[in-house]
User: Which sequence fits this backbone?
């Protein structure tokens, strides 16, 4: 006795909404293109859009794994800034080249993420508190280290002059797509991801199913921080400069990916989350690009729109959660 | 081969000062359905969770197939072919039903680190087919499934372990009439293969009907184990409570009895794909039962009346105040209340204390002129409710999530029934509640009815509908087929005939 009717109805409805979302997205891009005087979707500008989408997408994928365990960790930004500065230091100033850049950044990002997780899990500190505290600590430590480097002469500003191939096209686009493929495989086809979602949303079910929660959380932290680290490498390869932050300034780099993950969450019933992050990263980049093309300066109304987008995405995302589930 | 599949010897388990199980010993025969009966908090679920490895006993031993059995985790229990459908566990809403079915063992389907979902789907379908249970939608998110589907999913999840012994902890109370029949057929098929079932249910009629033997627990102690040929529901009830319960707990009058005044009037209520054109009048002092098969839409009707279904069309009025009821706020303001079937998701604040859960709906009534709440008044009320509903808890500050299923339901229901209400929508109010409390709840409902409360009683249990209602509205294929009167043809056979 198979309740075929229900299954068919669900998949038909899902397909319909998927199609509607894609059509909506396409129409939105056309509107953006039109209001920017046909500049948004020009080939040269599409390159800009891709470049602007890559780093937030990597951070979004990282958040998908780290936040997925129920840990709202605000130290991710400080963590990546610390790791990438050390990466640049080893690559450019110690002469370790690409190996130093990539290896150091990844290893440090993983270690720092684990320290934050460890504090939250072992000491049972709410993750956002542990995250904020560790962000302050990582920021300060980095500033102290950079300040004491004699060759920087107190500027606190490392430059990556060489080893920047990952910040050029088509490498950036390739890495963007590769990150999506890897994130999709990990998120949809691995035991880690299934266990992670169980631990993050229903810890009791996870325990009853024999899932090792700690192991799952720490493994997810490794995966998430690798995404964050690779994103930071791509970003520094593009910008060439690593700026340390202070006074929780590192949190500001999390807003774009936060908006992206919120947006992806809001359509997660219809579009799988990695694809949602990919599309959202492109869409949000488009929004900022439109603002720039319309003459809105960064540091003024762009930040206003970023804040508004985070709130709007949060509302859309919660609309799903508030829906009565029977 | 030894006829005993599983045995428990002198199992004890305590939580602080509470002795949940005390020296319990019992034997489960092969091909047998063994019932576990007891009041809420009697230790049934604790014993079941020890058997399936969720908890470890303080002392005592267990044997399966004559060998010592000591699972430290549910996975170990599964490896020993013991599985359980846990009463209050549920599913992971953000994962697909398919992944939920194999959660914890998805590694089995992985190659080079990647899980083969198609292979998993094949295995899932084999399980449904093998045991003759209907297939739940495997794609999408599990949170989109109805409670009934989720319960069947949990059953299927337990069956993926290919168990010899399966524990069904109050599964049937979440199921509608037709799905229960399917469950009974499954149990028959399962036991015919020499496998055994431990069944925990508060429906004692069902227990006598389905089980071969029954063990009764009271306050963590095993009172007796007997063949069902020696038992009837009354005998089990008396053993559970420890005193004689006289007569039936349903009403005994044979005629509908309510006032003429209409309290709620519904005209052509429709929620697309859920139900269509439902019209009725609910009178003062009336209990209007609502019955139907699993997909008939009875539970959706309850949530729609409360205003939770955004797509609802049609008219709904609270006649005494002339208010059109569009939202939960309208219902609350017109002295209405709604008790959802899914108490954990829509009823209780599980992380909050009993105090906060009970005080919340009464906060406005208890606040002073300036709007400030009086903690002493609130405490007094909560203590009174806890006492009168016999909610078993350490104190009123205990987190609600740590209560047994039945006690949670008592908290859920009691906080509404202490209010001055005009009407209430009760969706399966006795789900997961033992006979003692069931009798108490029915008594409270009947008293409230006599005082003029209008009750819409949505239920999956026909005896409950028949025993309590003045009239019964039967839904089939999302439509109201008939409304039967108590004085007319009011029998289980008649309702089943209309429902099917």
Assistant:
């Amino acid at each position: 006795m198979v309740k075929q009717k229900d299954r068919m109805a669900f998949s038909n409805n899902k397909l319909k909404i998927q199609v509607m979302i894609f059509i909506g997205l396409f129409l939105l891009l056309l509107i953006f293109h039109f209001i920017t005087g046909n500049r948004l979707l020009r080939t040269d500008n599409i390159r800009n859009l891709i470049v602007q989408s890559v780093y937030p997408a990597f951070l979004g994928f990282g958040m998908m794994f780290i936040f997925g365990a129920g840990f709202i960790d605000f130290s991710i930004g400080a963590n990546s800034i610390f790791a990438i500065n050390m990466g640049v230091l080893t690559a450019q100033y110690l002469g370790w080249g690409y190996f130093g850049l990539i290896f150091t950044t990844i290893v440090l990002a993983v270690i720092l993420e684990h320290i934050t997780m460890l504090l939250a899990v072992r000491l049972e500190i709410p993750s956002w508190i542990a995250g904020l505290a560790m962000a302050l600590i990582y920021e300060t430590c980095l500033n102290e280290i950079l300040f004491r480097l004699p060759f920087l002469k107190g500027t606190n500003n490392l430059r990556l002059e060489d080893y920047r191939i990952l910040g050029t096209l088509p490498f950036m686009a390739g890495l963007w797509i590769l990150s999506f493929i890897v994130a999709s495989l990990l998120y949809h086809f691995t035991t880690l991801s299934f266990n992670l979602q169980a631990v993050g949303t229903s810890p009791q079910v996870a325990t009853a199913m024999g899932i090792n929660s700690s192991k799952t959380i720490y493994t997810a932290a490794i995966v998430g921080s690798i995404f964050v680290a690779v994103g930071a490498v791509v970003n520094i390869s593009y910008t060439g400069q690593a700026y340390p932050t202070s006074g929780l300034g590192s949190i500001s780099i999390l807003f774009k990916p936060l908006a992206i993950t919120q947006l992806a969450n809001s359509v997660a019933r219809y579009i799988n989350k990695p694809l949602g992050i990919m599309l959202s990263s492109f869409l949000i980049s488009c929004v900022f690009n439109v603002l720039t093309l319309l003459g809105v300066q960064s540091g003024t109304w762009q930040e206003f729109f970023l804040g508004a987008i985070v709130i709007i995405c949060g509302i859309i995302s919660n609309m799903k959660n508030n829906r009565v589930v029977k | 081969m030894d006829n005993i599949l599983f045995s428990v010897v002198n199992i004890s388990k305590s939580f602080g000062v509470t002795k949940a199980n005390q020296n319990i010993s019992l034997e489960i025969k092969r091909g047998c359905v063994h019932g576990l009966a007891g009041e809420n908090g009697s230790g049934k679920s604790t014993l079941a969770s020890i058997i399936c490895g969720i908890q470890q006993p303080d002392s005592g031993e267990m044997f399966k197939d004559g060998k010592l059995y000591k699972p430290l985790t549910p996975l170990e229990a599964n490896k020993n072919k013991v599985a359980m459908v846990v009463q209050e566990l549920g599913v992971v809403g953000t994962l697909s039903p398919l992944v939920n079915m194999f959660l914890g063992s998805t590694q089995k389907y992985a190659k080079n680190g990647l899980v083969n979902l198609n292979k998993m789907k094949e295995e899932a379908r084999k399980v449904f087919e093998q045991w003759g249970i209907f297939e739940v939608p495997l794609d999408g998110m599990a949170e989109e499934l109805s409670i009934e589907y989720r319960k069947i999913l949990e059953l299927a999840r337990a069956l993926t372990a290919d168990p010899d012994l399966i524990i069904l902890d109050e599964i049937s109370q979440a199921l509608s009439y037709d799905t229960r029949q399917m469950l009974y057929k499954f149990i028959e098929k399962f036991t015919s293969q020499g496998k055994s079932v431990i069944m925990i249910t508060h429906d004692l009629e069902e227990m006598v009907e389905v089980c071969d033997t029954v063990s009764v627990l009271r306050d963590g102690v095993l009172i007796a184990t007997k063949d069902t040929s020696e038992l009837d529901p009354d005998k089990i009830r008396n053993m559970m409570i420890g005193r004689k319960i006289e007569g039936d707990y349903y009403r005994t009058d044979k005629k509908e009895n309510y006032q003429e005044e209409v309290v709620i009037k519904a005209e052509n209520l429709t929620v697309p794909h859920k139900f269509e054109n439902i019209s009725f009048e609910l009178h003062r002092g009336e209990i209007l039962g609502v019955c139907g098969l699993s997909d008939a839409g009875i539970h959706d009707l309850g949530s729609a009346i409360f205003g939770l279904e955004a797509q609802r069309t049609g008219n709904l009025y609270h006649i005494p105040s002339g208010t059109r009821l569009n939202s939960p706020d309208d219902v609350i303001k017109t002295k209405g209340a709604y008790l959802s079937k899914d108490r954990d998701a829509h009823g209780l604040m599980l992380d909050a204390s009993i105090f906060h859960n009970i005080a919340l709906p009464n906060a406005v009534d208890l606040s002073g002129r300036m709007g400030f709440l009086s903690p002493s008044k609130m405490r007094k009320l909560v203590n009174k409710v806890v006492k009168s509903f016999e909610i078993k808890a350490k104190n009123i500050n205990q987190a609600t999530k740590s209560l047994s299923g039945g006690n949670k339901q008592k908290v859920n229901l009691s906080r509404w029934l202490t209010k001055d209400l005009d009407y209430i929508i009760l969706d399966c109010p006795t789900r997961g509640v033992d006979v003692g409390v069931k009798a108490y709840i029915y008594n409270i409902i009947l008293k409230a009815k006599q005082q003029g409360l209008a009750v819409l009683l949505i239920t999956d249990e026909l005896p409950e509908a028949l025993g309590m209602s003045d009239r019964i509205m039967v839904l089939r294929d999302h439509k109201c087929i008939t409304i039967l009167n108590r004085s007319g043809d009011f029998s289980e056979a008649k309702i089943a005939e209309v429902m099917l």
Q: What stands out?
A: The longest helix of chain A spans residues 4-35. Strands of chain A lie at 158-159, 241-242.
